[in-house]
Amino acid sequence: LAPFSFGALSLAPPPGRRHHRTMGDSIVSSGSGVFGQPFPPCPCCAFVPGDLFLPPGARCIPEEEAHQLTETADRVDGDESGASIAAMDPKEALLAIRMEAAQTAPGAEVDDVDEGTYGYFLPRVALVDTHGHPHLNRDSRGEYSTEHDKDGHGALIEEQRDVISLTCSVSESDWDDALEYASRSNRVVPGLGVHPWYLADLSDTYLADLERRLLDHPGAIVGEIGLCKVAKFVRTYPEGKAAAMSLQRRAFREQLELAARLGRPTTVHCVQQHGVLMKVLKEIREEKAKEIKEKKRQRWRNKREAADTEHGGMIFKDGKDDNFGTFADAFPPAIGMHSFTGTAHYVGELLKFEESLFDEKDEDMAPVFYFGFSHMVNVLMCSSPKSQRQSTEAIKAVPPHRLLAESDVHSPQDVAAGTAGAVAYIGAAIGQTLPEVASLTARNGIEFLSTRRKETDKIGDARTRELQ
Questions:
Q1: Which of 47, 133, 190, 263 is an S-S bond match for 456, by CB 3.0 to 4.6 Å?
Q2: How many CA atoms, within 13 angstroms, populate the side-chain half-sphere of residue 126?
């Protein structure tokens, strides 16, 4: 990744960190595409890590909100334990994060603006939301909406220029809506996929249609996809629960493998299906192992034939430079476990599985599995003491460079505060301050959203020509 500015913090990868190919590696200006090619005519793939940020002073906070920011920041200051974060309202968390970002932004100052009021200059980016559905444009929730964010759909994206977000489609019917919403800002990334709740009307051509859309929109990731035991679709599917679960598993695997084939990140919903998830992952790994083994056998047979015919029976051993790939090639380059509700044990299982995908794996290699947490799901929906203990333990079990903040909201008005609520929740669990967790999850989020696998470039180009 190229360095990104977050207040006084540079969002560059830690020294020595090795990455998959990322969008940031090849983009040098706002006119460049995901892999260094011109952008397609539509602007929905214009998520440009190198051009995400505003010049200093381009965004000011009204005086009334600035006073609120100051009051909130004062309450947070001096409490290094993070205890106050646990009780912090998402809107207050947002104000505190923006205040801190404004104070640490390069060239930050208080200055006069046209109306004669005072404003704090916001930094170029304050939050990264790695999962939501704001393109659905449903009613805003009181926990997240703020007065100055109620000017309308299009204006709202302009107001939230300090937030990078992912808007995930849920069915074939809203793919165009997600793309259109993302086209309004180069700070919004579209996700295309079919959610496990919306499979009842799945078309026979959905996978080919999805692949074509993804090839047309190289900035899009795959999602939301997944597995869900409690989905209404499972209970109401005409052919019965078993058939519904079978369809859900098939659709999940097909979309997961499509993301792997195209080298795109994916965001995964998994509720009460961790065992099934692990089974699908292991099946894919074993099939890849068989493929690699067969390639090695074929390579050996080819060399024997060449030796027998050209070198008087001399047999050559396999060269060490033969590239048969790794198990990781069968999986997307980055997998975000969305609003994770599993246990700390499940976190460990997924990380252990990831280790098995590489011939050698160390901490300096870019992650495959990330774990997202949201205020919407992990606080409002899973509010029992047992759920809260389980979620806190799970967050603590996740290595910091794999933590993601999510809004999981369905209204544009709720994105910023919803993400801030997630930041506050994660901070309370790991005992870090709002600014620390905001910058951590922003760095992780940009890395997750912009990860691509380099070797899939030519595959994608060839597949595009094949489908044309």
A1: 263
A2: 28
Residue type, 341: T
Cβ(203)–Cβ(209) under 8 Å?
A: yes
Query: Does the bond joining 360 to the residue before it have cis omega, within 30 degrees of 0?
Result: no
Is this structure's pTM higher than 0.70? yes
Task: Provide the terminal-to-terminal Cα distance of the chain, rounded to the nearest Å.
Answer: 32
Side-chain half-sphere exposure of 78, counting CA atoms within 13 A: 4
Give me the count of residues in the chain: 468
Give the Å distances, CA to CA, from 46 to 11, 250, 324, 443.
20, 32, 34, 19
* Distance (Å) of CA 294 to CA 5, 111, 307: 47, 68, 20
CA distances from 42 to 38, 180, 189, 323 (A): 11, 9, 13, 37
In degrees, rounded to 5, the angle at the alpha carbon of residue 19 between the alpha carbons of residues 100 and 419 is 30
Q: Which residue has the higher pLDDT, 179 or 103?
A: 179
